[in-house]
Structures are given as structure tokens and as C-alpha cells.
Amino acid sequence: MANIYIAAQAGTSAANTNKTWNSFSTLPTTAAALAGSAITFRVGTGFSTTTSPENPGVGTGNAAWVDEVIIAAEAWFVGGSNGANADFFFENVPAGTYTVKVFCYRGATNDRSTQVTVAGSPITVTADDLSEAAIFTGVSPDGSGVILGNIQENNGSDFGYVNAFALEPEGSPTPTVRKGSQFDVETTLSGTVTAATLNGNAITVDSQAGTTVTLTDSGSAVTTSGEYNLVLTDDSADPDETIVVQVNVYGVAPSNNPLQKDGSALASLTGVQLRVTAGANLNGSELYYSGTGTTDASGNLGNIDLSSTAAADTDPVLLHMRT
Asked: What is d(CA 228, CA 165) in angstroms, rounded to the nearest whole number?
């Protein structure tokens, strides 16, 4: 499951420059869908909205996950009486443990301390400091899949503020995928997965047993190892689920050693024959062959992708070239 981020906006949507922020045109008093997840979010009665926070900026310290200025410039608030408070709910949360983060900011010079309570544990933040957030670890949903929280004013002004929420799974390692291979992921979708994309390209859904989905990377077109979004679609009304996976590309990189003759780069060659064999001997089994290799202006050959072969990460190979 991917991390979930929610901006408590008062009308302006977060820009999603650095991550996916969920924001709503009105207070979500009924279950609101969250991007890439079957988990929903709503608030209880008692919240109002404001665009009056002062001196907004991006978060720092344990609030560094708040990475857009607009999020600190708009807020939901509780107020009007001493101890004013309102609840928030993550619902349909799969069993497991999570970190819940809550950012409360007003930016005023007078006291705007706000108390955040999750799973019965209260934390008070000043709400005047961009480097503060309430962080709760080891939080588990109740038997109905609900994580309950509360925002309460904790100052003499009778007002408390909240600007952002995060729900991050704990102990959920990023799935690792060899490009072109078959792999399993766990889904939170309630139906049967019918389609999947990796790196924005369709891949094959092979089977599903319970929440375990077996997929084959049949066309991700990934060329560089790294983290990519896997998006799952099912046959229910659930919104698509996004899972971050590590895709590893196996191969050799002759571009690290430009081709030269007499000290000069062999630039812009065409028709270079490339052959990769397994092992350290010249008679090893062939893993790759191409008669259409090229070099760039610096004499660099492109990387050779061996992901679809049986070569393991540390296996020795020989690269044969002929121009």
C-alpha cells in the first residue's frame, strides 16, 4: 500500500508537485475516496475552513512531508468554546500497523496550541511552527477497519487548527521486481483485479488468490532501475490502487567505457555487432546478440538489457564487439 496524504484545504487544491495530495472541495463529512487506495477518509461535525494562516511555508523537521506552501496557507479549524474538538476517520484500513502524521499550523504570534489524539494518545503542537507535526507510530485499525483521531483546541483562544494528514504503512517493504518477470503483490482492493499498469504501461494480470495478485511485467518499458508506480484496477467501485515497486533492470553498461582508437572517440558508428556470453570464457552460452549497435558523439554504446535472460545480478559475462 502506498502512503496516503491529505491536505485540509479551504478551496484551493494542493498542486501534487512532489507527491499525491488528496484534497476536497468541501469538508468530507461522508466517506471520501483517496487516490490509489480503497481506504476512505471523513471528518465529524465541528470543523470549519479558513484561508487566514499567516506566514505559510513548507514543513521542516518532522513536518518535512508537508512539501507545498499552499497546505500551510489553508486549514480546517475547531473553535468557539474552550475544549472545542472534532473527529477524523480513516476507514476501510487493512489490518496492520501504521504511522499517522498530523500537521497543525496557524502561524500567529499568539498561542494556537492544538491537541491531536490518535488511538487514545494525545500530542500537543504549538500550531505556530512549521517544523512541528504530531507523529503516532504503531497505530492499528479497530475491528471495523477504522483509525479514529481527534483535533482539539488547547489554548486560550478557543481555536485549534489542522492542515494535513498522512497515513503510512509500517513494515511493508517495497516489492522488488526484475524487469520482464512474474511477481506477486498484496492488494487492498475489495474486488478482483482486472487490469494493471507499471510505469504507465499495461502489464499482464495472471491470477489472484485472496489479496495476493500475480502479475507479469510484460511491457513496463522501464530502462533504468528505480521505483515506479504499479496501478491496479478491480471490478468493484473501489478507486484504483497505487503501489510503489522497485523495478531492477539487469544488464551491462558499455557506455561506461567509450570506444576509442588511437586516443580518439569512435563517434557515431552504426552497425556495431554486440554479443554477450555467460561466464568468463569466450565459448560461454549466448545471452544477447545485436548487429545494429550504435555509438554516440562520445563513442558511448547504449546499455544492454539482459533482464529477460537467466543471468543473475552477480554473474560474470563477456561482451564481444565488432565494428
From this structure: 24
C-beta neighbour count of 297 within 10 angstroms: 9
Tell me if 317 sits within 8 A of 276, measured CB to CB.
Answer: yes
Collect all residues with Cβ–Cβ distance below 8 Å to 238 and sequence separation of at least 6.
38, 189, 190, 191
Concatenate the DSSP letters of all residues of 283-312 into one string: TPPEEEEEEEE-B-TTSPBPPEE-TTSS--
Close Cβ partners of 64 (under 8 Å, ≥ 6 residues apart)? 58
Please list the residues that pair with 185 across neighbouring strands: 213
Confidence label for 285 from pLDDT (cuts 50, 70 and 90) = confident
State how far the Cα of 104 lies from the Cα of 127, in Å rounded to an integer. Answer: 5
231 alpha-carbon distance from chain centroid: 11
Q: Residues 104, 54: contact at Cβ < 8 Å?
A: no
More confident residue, 168 or 187: 168
* All residues at 6 or more sequence positions from 312 whose CB lies less than 8 Å from its CB, including other chains: 250
251: its cell numbers = 544488464
Q: Are 214 and 206 in contact (CB under 8 A)?
A: yes
d(CA 179, CA 199): 11
| CA 208 distance to own-chain centroid | 23
Indicate whether 12 pLDDT > 90. Answer: no
Beta-bridge partners for 102: 134, 165
Considering only the C-alpha atoms of the chain, give the largest distance between any 2 of them, rounded to a whole number of Å. 84
Distance CA 188, CA 106 (A): 35
3-class secondary structure, 5: strand
pLDDT of residue 173 exceeding 70: no
Most confident of 170-184, 202-216, 306-320: 202-216
Closest CA to 21 of 10, 31, 8: 8
Residue 210 has pLDDT above 80, yes or no: yes
For 116-129, the pLDDT digits (tens) are: 999 999 999 988 88
C-alpha cell of 200?
Answer: 504507465
* pLDDT > 70? residue 172: no
Please tell me the pTM assigned to this model.
Answer: 0.60
